[in-house]
Amino acid sequence: MKLPLLALVCATHLATTSASLGSKKHVQVLKRQATTAPPPPKPSTPTNVPTATASGIPPLSKITMGMPSAPTPLVTATFSAGAEPPIKGAPPLPSPFVFMLNEWPAQDRVPETNTPEVQEWMKELEGFNIPNISPTTDGSCAGDIEAAAQAAQRGWWTCGGYTRSTDIVACPDKLTWGVSFDDGPGPYTQTLLDYLKSKNISSTFFLVGSRVIERPTVVIEEYMAGHEISVHTWSHRPLTSLSNEQIVAELGWTRKAIRRMIGVSPTTMRPPFGDIDDRVRAISLAMGMVPLLWTRTPSGGVFDTNDWKVAAGEVTGLQSFQTFENIFNNASALDNGFIVLQHDVHEITVDMAVGYTLDAALNHNPKFTLKAIGQCTNTPATDMYLETTTNTTFPYPNNTKVDVDGDGKAETAIGATTSDAALIQSSIFTVLFGALMAAFGSMI
Ligand SMILES: [Zn+2]
């Protein structure tokens, strides 16, 4: 399946996209899926259609693809090079970013792998046990029958919701809402940032590298406002469909772009569409990035607001809100908290969040506590970045020789007192990974 160049939507739409190909094969697979994985319950009629309290947000019934655009919001805060970030021990903000065409891969394409940077980052995998799992056809269950049949062994999240103990999939405390926004920064992210500030809410932002180089000041504002910054790849492809080198390139270039803007490198990542298996996991962990997904209930309920479907014209804002109401029901049935998937790259998804979903969450009874994912999992803020973490188990293994910018020199000195830290990493990792594999069955 050929994905559009600018794949800006997440989650479960992969199967939908495959189905739209209309081939008999795909239809058959979807039917088979339906027998093994019952669809989530139908959205109920919203009992109380809310009115937006924030100014400039259209009524819910008007939020749909093709609605008129509001003026792009102005940047409300500026930060100078050398400014002190809110993370203890973090370096001051770097010099202002100047885009140079020859310094970055083409936007929204899988970066070339035969480059000095990617080859340098490939060294981070040396000594690690990267499972020899074949890439999937397109990251969807429906697109790859063989891979789908092995989904459990592969630990494939997209196809059956299989997780490993290294994945972060929920907030531990009941009624705690892990706030996350993906795919930005976008032209309306500023509106969201202003709203979050007014409500004193922190979020985790999963950034696409191709967007980071477009809007560096927004990335800086997110970071300086105390939000958490995480990697969401360079071109937003399903990672299970890529080669090891391509996965490294996707993660490496995004990490490098983020570091160029804010001076630190995230220790976490979220795979586009949630498309992760044991190979993608192992590569991410070897590069010092812990996977953060979003919550699924045992019955198949997913904490996906479906805001991306509104932007894609598949549902209306009202229908998306109905899905969202199910999240409330799912949340009440859980013993723990949960992580919710939302997007800030489109005006529509920002309007949904600012006007309706976050407001509804804040006004919910019983009360939800809204926090960024690192906060809700009690992860110290310093652990969220390679340059500031002092934790030897997050990300695990302790990355002491990571060359983020590909210049041949390690970017962080924390714990890097030995000449062969990579070997130490690998031995720690081998033990932990071996235990993991023993717990979850044999590898493919
Ligand atoms: Zn995404």
TrEMBL record:
This is chitin deacetylase. The lineage of its organism: Eukaryota, Fungi, Dikarya, Basidiomycota, Agaricomycotina. Residues 175-369 form the NodB homology domain. It comes from Agaricus bisporus var. burnettii (strain JB137-S8 / ATCC MYA-4627 / FGSC 10392) (White button mushroom). Belongs to the polysaccharide deacetylase family. It is found in: Cell membrane; Secreted, Cell wall. Keywords: Carbohydrate metabolism, Cell membrane, Cell wall, Cell wall biogenesis/degradation, Chitin degradation, Cobalt, Glycoprotein, GPI-anchor, Hydrolase, Lipoprotein, Membrane, Metal-binding, Polysaccharide degradation, Secreted, Signal. Residues 1-19 form the signal peptide. It is a lipid-anchor; GPI-anchor. Its cofactor is Co(2+). One of its GO terms (biological process) is cell wall organization. It catalyses: [(1->4)-N-acetyl-beta-D-glucosaminyl](n) + n H2O = chitosan + n acetate. It is an enzyme of class 3 (hydrolase). PROSITE patterns: NODB (PS51677). Gene3D superfamilies: Glycoside hydrolase/deacetylase. GO terms for cellular component: plasma membrane; side of membrane. One of its GO terms (molecular function) is metal ion binding. Its EC number is 3.5.1.41.
